[in-house]
Every structure is written in C-alpha cells, then in structure tokens.
TrEMBL record:
Occurrences of domain Flagellar hook-associated protein 2 N-terminal (ranges): 9-104
Family to which this protein belongs: Belongs to the FliD family.
Keywords assigned: Bacterial flagellum, Cell projection, Cilium, Coiled coil, Flagellum, Secreted
Domain Flagellar hook-associated protein 2 C-terminal: 209-413
Biological process, per Gene Ontology: bacterial-type flagellum-dependent cell motility; cell adhesion
Entry superkingdom: Bacteria
Cellular compartment(s): Secreted; Bacterial flagellum
Role, per record: Required for morphogenesis and for the elongation of the flagellar filament by facilitating polymerization of the flagellin monomers at the tip of growing filament. Forms a capping structure, which prevents flagellin subunits (transported through the central channel of the flagellum) from leaking out without polymerization at the distal end.
GO annotations of cellular component type: bacterial-type flagellum filament cap; bacterial-type flagellum hook; extracellular region
Pfam families (UniProt xref): FliD_C (PF07195), FliD_N (PF02465)
PANTHER family linked: FLAGELLAR CAP/ASSEMBLY PROTEIN FLID, FLAGELLAR HOOK-ASSOCIATED PROTEIN 2
Protein's name according to its UniProt entry: Flagellar hook-associated protein 2
Amino acid sequence: MTSVDGLVTGLDTTSIISQLMSLEAAPQTRLKSKVSDQQKLTTAYQAINTRMLAVQNAAKDLAAATTWTAVKATSSSSAVSVAASTTALAGTATFDVTSLAATHVLTSAVPGSGTPAAGASLDLVFSGKTVNVPVATNTPQGVADAINGANAGVRATVLTTTTGQVLQFSATGTGAAKSFSVSGLTNATAVMTQGADGVVTVGNPLAGGYKLASADNTFTGLIPGVTVTANKVESGITVSTTADPGKAADATQTLVNAVNSALSLIDGYTAYNATTKTGGVLSGNPMVRSLREQLLTTVSSGVPNGTFSTSGVSLDRTGALKFDRSAFLAAAGKDPAAVKAQIGTTLTGRYTEVADGVINSTTGKLTLVIQNGDAYVRKLNDQITDWDSKLASKKVALQRQYTNLETALGKLKDQSSWLSSQLSSLS
C-alpha cells in the first residue's frame, strides 16, 4: 500500500512515515549494534586462538625426541657425500672406496651383409630370468627399437664406427645384478663393461674387517642412519656424525617467535589510544590479561635453582621473550641433557599447558567464549528477523492511516465546498 503525499493536507507523508519508522526501528538498530560489537569480539578471540595454536604446535615440535637427537654428518673427502637421517646415531667410520658400481655393456658387430638377428626374436638373459623380444624389422635399427620397446632393463643403440655399424646394449642401471647376455644375434657379443657393484672396505677383511657392496654406490651400513654415496675410488676416508643442537635451537627460536606473536596481538587488542581516547576491543578483558601474564610468567618463574637464561631464553625490557642462540648452543655443547630438561621438557610443558587451557576443543577458555559469542549472535539475529516482520507490518499500518487521513480530509473539503456553494445561492 502506498500513500499520496499532501494532496489535501499538504503533508510530506513519506517523510513523516520514514521518521516514525526510524523511531519504531530503534530497538532493532540496538540489536544490530550488539551483533556488530560481538562479532568484533569474536574476531579478536579467534585471532588470539590462532596464535595460541601456533604456540602449542611450536612447543610440541620442540619437545619431540627427534629434535634433540639430531646429528650432522661430515666427510673427510670429496670422494663421498654423506647424509644423516632423523634416526642417525653419533659415530665414526673409516674405510676405502675399493671400486665403483659399473653398468653392464655389450657390443655386437652388424654383419656387412645379411641381417643382425639370426631369427625372428632375441633373448635377453639375466641371472634369474629370460625375456624374449620379437624382432619385427630385422635391421640394426629394427633390432634396437625392439629391445628398447620391450622395457626389459636394457637399452640398445646403433653406432657407426670406423669399421662399420655396431649394436651396443647397455643395462639401464648399475650393479652386478643387472648384468645380462643377448642370444639370437648373427654375430656374437663382446663384454665392453662388466656390470659390477661398488665396494667399500672397512679395515682388513683378513683381520676382522669387512666389505660392503652397493649396486648404486650408496652405502647405509657404515653408521646407523647414515647414508654414504661414493663417487670416486679413494682410500682412508673418514665419515663422522656428531650431535647437532642446531635443530633444537631452531625449534626454540620458533617457540619464542610464536609466543611473542601472541603477546603482540594481545597488546594490540588491549591497547589504549590516547589520541582517540578509546581502548581496544579487548581492553580490560580479564581473561586475555590473565593469558598475557601466563605467557610471561612461564619464563620469568624460571626453573628450580636457576633460570631459563642459562639456556638462552629470557625476557627483555619490553615484556617480550628473547632468545640467545649462542648461549643456547654453548650450553647444549657443555651439558645437552640439562638444556633438554630445561627447554625441551620444562619450558615446552608449561607452554603446552597454557595453550591447552585456552584452545582445548572442549574446555579451552577461548573456545568456550567463542562458542558462547556465536550462540549470542544467533539469538540476536533471530530477534532482528522478528523485528523485520513487526516493522513491515507497522509501515503498512502507517501508510494506510495517512492514506485514510487524506481521503477523509478530501471528503470534508468536498462537503465544505458544497456547503459554501449552497450558502452563496441562498444569499
């Protein structure tokens, strides 16, 4: 329903109804304001929750056993490269690279006249199997294509030499197990390179020493968890693994960074702006203030008969955590067990407990306040929706009321005009 503005009364009916509706909608406007305020709170809580999850994960990584058992591997020679796994143990091994793994290669001269294959197929003979390869086109290239198409672990190439064409057959990998022979050729094959394993010798095999063989020059038995790759024959090579506190130092720095990031975010949400004379969305919030105190007292409370600063972790003057990597590495080099106990057990345990207290999926304080906030917003939105219906009905009623007013006044005006005309006629 619509109203007709001021045809009779001269009133701006649309404007009047709009102002009246603004007054009627005041309760709904207040509800919307509450929703906006709560959403700002929830956004802040969720952001802090994310930062605390990072603290929890960093503490978990720092507490992991593999963080404190990491080793670094070194080699005395460029003849071998060495890599340590996460399960590698500290140790030393001295050995000789006696030989390197070789690829098995055969050659067969192509007949000056006639065909290279004696029949319709060839046999690739390995140690434990034989692969029959049909030859569709009995030419040098046809034989090579047939071998390559079989994908049996052998590649064939046709070479043009000073004495004529030669078929060359090569294993697709190194090692003695990949050695093979080819039967069914018109001309016999010759071994150009014998497939062989790489060998390292530790000590004197005749006096308690031993040899290790590898098809690809990679050896894993010299030190548990350590892989040695040989690339040159050489004697008197020493590889060693030693404890590497660098991984634990990196993990400690990550935890310190995560805590400082959480502190910085909390400060931003609780800070007072002197210019605008307004506080942050969480200004004065007791839960957040308590969380900030816990993040700091975890370090400031120290350990029995000492402080975390002996292991490189302390508080600076700005109220943030500080990590001294040099102090950490020095302490770990002197007494790794003590540093692990301080940082890897006590510090991580405390931060894990603090984080769980606020982000636990069922009992965490932040989790609960976020869930309650979401429920509150849903309740407010339901009330806002109810008000939509009420206001729509109210607007229709006002439009009808003012339309009726215009109609009634119009009729009165018509009657007044008629009466005036009647009186005029009488006079």
